[in-house]
Design goal:
The chain contains 14 helices and 23 strands. It is α/β, with parallel strands linked by helices. Bound molecules: cytidine-5'-triphosphate. The site of cytidine-5'-triphosphate (CTP) has 15 residues, from helix 11 and strand 18.
């Protein structure tokens, strides 16, 4: 699948740069066209001659070749189907995140119109540093593809996370990204309505009943649907997640279940696919106090009343408007049975099950482990993955199954 693909490989200063030679060789074996850009620091770890021989193209390092000809960073950025930065040093990560453009590689990166993937490599303490983590997260939030470092023995002799992913792993990612790009039009102009985040149910002007949902899963689904060509309307509860990458979609911010219900109701008519991932509070205080409640009494009782079940309502309107509906189920026990029962009760086409029994799944984590159940008793189980990858699995399943 890499045959004829144009791959631009950026190599930065890290001991893992030696693996770039294997990477280029394997990419060439797969039939890809490869051009390599090196930073000056990378030259201390691997020679340009090795990489130009393997890639069968001149290796580019400087903005100009001995003042004679100009290496056009814009053309290179436009030439590539994908740009890989492997290894990506802590220094380059920081530059990518701030837009510092002090070498040809950064100029090409800033001009690239294609997907960009980066494979960090550094010592474990550097990898664990708050700034590195923040830079990586910020790049992921901006839509760049992380090929995560692996655990193992490091050049320092220490053992931990920081080794660059192996060339085979990088190539697998490359195929997935390019495959995804080819599928970009999978949901061309399909109208998605997505709910995400928690809801807050007011007790008085300062207090509320809420839950631990971060909204991240729904936000990732919205971003991925957008990447696959969909028109997305996101109804988002009070989430503190970074909303960069959501600029090109319509967002309605809401706080309570009632507000979410009202936002959804007016949208159903124009929806093709509804994905309801919000963790909606099932109950709200019967009366919301106008003033802050004072602690005069030793005990108080809050009377709660049921909130509207937004997904159930959407299920009831399905026949009228003809959309497909996907819900979520967060369960702690009898997971499959409970999810199946929700699928039927709420008239869904698919349900995505999270079990709180699974480590790394559910609320307030950056990973998730899901099972998708269909109407025909089909059960698809997935591994623990980042929420961005889980979003891809969910959308690919929707495309395949309904
Ligand atoms: N949901 C909704 N409105 C509600 C409650 C839930 O739209 N008032 C949706 C959620 O977005 C999710 C699905 O229904 O897609 C299941 O939510 P969950 O809380 O697991 O199920 P409940 O129906 O509330 O059932 P229970 O709490 O009894 O498990």
């Amino acid at each position: 699948m890499l045959k004829g693909k144009k791959i631009l490989l950026g190599v930065t200063g890290s001991i893992a740069a030696y693996k770039a030679a294997f990477l280029v060789r394997e990419l060439k074996k797969e039939g890809a066209e490869v051009k390599v850009v090196l930073t000056h620091h990378a030259k201390s770890f691997i020679t340009p001659l090795t990489l130009s021989t393997l890639s069968e193209n001149p290796v580019l390092i400087d903005w100009s070749n001995d003042q004679e000809s100009w290496n056009n960073h814009v053309d290179l950025g436009l030439w590539a189907d994908i740009m890989l930065i492997a290894p990506c040093s802590a220094n380059t990560l920081a530059k990518m995140n701030t837009g510092i453009c002090d070498n040809l590689l950064m100029g090409v990166y800033l001009s690239a119109k294609c997907p960009v993937a980066f494979a960090p490599a550094m010592d474990l303490d550097m990898y664990q540093h708050f700034t590195t983590k923040r830079n990586i997260q910020s790049l992921v939030d901006q839509g760049y593809h992380l090929i995560d470092a692996e655990e193992g023995e490091l050049a320092s002799g220490l053992i931990g996370k920081g080794r660059m992913a192996e060339p085979e792993t990088i190539i697998e990612h490359c195929k997935l990204i390019l495959g995804g790009k080819d599928q970009k039009k999978k949901f061309n102009q399909t109208k998605f309505l997505i709910t995400a985040g928690p809801t807050y149910e007011g007790i008085d002007p300062v207090r509320f009943i809420g839950n631990r949902s971060s909204g991240k899963m729904g936000i990732e689904i919205a971003k991925t649907a957008k990447k696959m060509g969909a028109n997305v309307h996101l109804v988002l509860g009070p989430s503190n997640e970074n909303t960069s990458g959501l600029e090109e979609m319509e967002i309605t911010r809401v706080e309570s279940a009632e507000e979410m219900f009202n936002a959804v109701k007016t949208r159903l008519e124009t929806t093709d696919i509804g994905i309801f991932s919000a963790a909606v509070a099932d109950y709200k205080p019967k009366n919301q106090a106008d003033q802050k409640i004072k602690k005069n009494d030793s005990e108080i009782t809050l009377e709660l009343v049921k909130n509207p079940d937004i997904l159930k309502y959407a299920g009831e309107q399905k026949a009228k408007f003809g959309y497909k509906l996907i819900g979520f189920a967060l369960e702690t026990n009898n997971e499959i049975e409970n999810a199946k029962s929700k699928l039927g009760r709420k008239n869904l086409d698919l349900i995505v099950l999270n079990s709180l029994q699974d480590k790394g799944a559910g609320f307030a984590t950056s990973t998730n482990k899901i099972t998708i159940l269909g109407k025909d008793n089909k059960i698809l189980k997935f591994e623990l993955k980042s929420k961005a990858e889980v979003a891809e699995d969910i959308l690919n399943t929707i495309a395949d199954e309904i």
